[in-house]
Design brief:
Number of helices: 8
CATH architecture of the largest domain: 3-Layer(bba) Sandwich
Largest sheet: 7 strands, mixed
Strand content: 15-25%
CATH class of the largest domain: Alpha Beta
Distance between the termini: 32 Å
Shape: elongated
Number of domains: 2
CATH superfamily of the largest domain: FAD/NAD(P)-binding domain
Length: 368
């Protein structure tokens, strides 16, 4: 399909931040289109179906915490059920000399999760948008001034034009995948290319079991390892322990042939023989996701760049706005940070367009 359309706003990326921005702008009456390179919405909100109806296992973002009111409010308005992270039980520490058990859960803090998985947040946000305003399988290849006071957005399907563009993808990914025709100042280019991608250098492993057998042994499902491959492990079971699951994080560089067997062997050493045979083992290597991580993602480590002041200022004559969780000034890397960044970008567009006199908007949702 070839198209050459004009919109008030184009949002690049249909993760939490992009969908938050798009729904706010649509509710404010702005002609907005959201472009997503993948064949799905959600970005790093990714949930795999579980064996129990209407429950899921998160392969990306998992938790939210007290004080993260955007997430709490979005879930409540959308009718998305949440539940508290399992905390009860002891912790296992794995060292080269063996394993040790410590009384109490030493690594998990009170937090909440989503019964149907975190991707349900993206589904709720997208439901508030007209179907024709969300285009999947539409990667953006270039963005540049169009010579008419706006921006041209190039895709394989054609060129679109907009008064404003919101970049709701990690800055380092944007600089690698999108041609900006050297329009950014050097300091912004250096910043964007150096900013880490949250979870970008991580593999998340989820093992589902018939039951949460570790709880019967007085364990919390919480573990720390100095030998790996999983460096930290948590209980990912659903409400009442169903579905039963453990999950852990590994450096993406450790994912190679035989990784699955190495993981299950580690789980067996930590939690007993039953852990060696999960019903399902999910390995989500985020460094291999071409629409999440740039090629050098494993070398980006300066997290102090998150929320940098340059990300709070529109670029390209005030028409291009940054809006991924990495750009948030508070809760960067969290779902809350993604929603906040999307809100901020939408507010900036509405103020620049004369629609808002103040910086206060609410993300709308369609209640299920």
């Amino acid at each position: 399909m070839s198209r050459q359309d004009s919109n008030n706003v184009i949002v690049v990326g249909a993760g939490a931040s992009g969908l938050a921005a798009a729904t706010a702008l649509h509710a404010a009456g702005r002609d907005t289109i959201c472009l997503e390179a993948r064949d799905r919405i959600g970005g790093r909100l990714l949930s795999a179906p579980a064996t129990h109806p209407e429950r899921a296992l998160d392969l990306g973002a998992t938790w939210f915490w007290d004080g993260e009111e955007r997430v709490r409010t979005l879930a409540a308005r959308s009718g998305i059920e949440t539940f508290g992270q399992h905390l009860t039980g002891d912790t296992i520490l794995q060292e080269s000399t063996g394993t040790r058990r410590y009384a109490g859960n030493l690594i998990d803090a009170p937090s909440r999760r989503f019964t149907a998985g975190s991707q349900s947040l993206a589904t709720a946000l997208a439901a508030a948008l007209p179907a024709e305003s969300l285009l999947l399988n539409t990667p953006v290849t270039a963005i540049h001034p169009d010579g008419q006071g706006g921006l041209a957005v190039l895709t394989p399907a054609g060129t679109l034009h907009a008064e404003h563009v919101i970049l709701a993808v990690p800055p380092a990914l944007a600089l690698e995948r999108i041609d900006f025709r050297d329009a950014f100042p050097a300091d912004l280019v250096r910043l964007a290319r150096s900013t880490p991608v949250w979870m970008g250098a991580v593999a998340k492993v989820v093992a589902q079991y018939p039951s949460a057998f570790w709880r019967e042994e007085g364990l919390a499902g919480a573990a720390l390892s100095r030998t790996g491959p999983l460096q930290e492990i948590h209980d990912m079971s659903g409400p009442d322990g169903r579905p039963a699951a453990l999950f852990g994080f590994a450096h993406a560089r450790t994912v190679r042939a035989g990784f699955d067997k190495t993981v299950t062997a580690q789980l067996a050493r930590l939690f007993g023989p039953a852990a060696a045979a999960p019903d399902v083992l999910h390995v989500q290597n985020w460094s291999a996701e071409q629409w999440t991580s740039p090629s050098n993602v494993r070398h980006l480590a300066d997290y102090s760049l998150f929320g940098h002041p340059l990300y709070q200022r529109p670029a390209l004559d005030g028409r291009l706005h940054w809006a991924s969780t990495e750009t948030a000034t508070d809760r960067a890397g969290h779902i809350e940070g993604a929603l906040a960044a999307g809100e901020r970008a939408a507010q900036a567009v509405l103020v620049a367009s004369g629609v808002l006199n103040s910086r206060s908007i609410t993300i709308p949702t369609t209640r299920r």
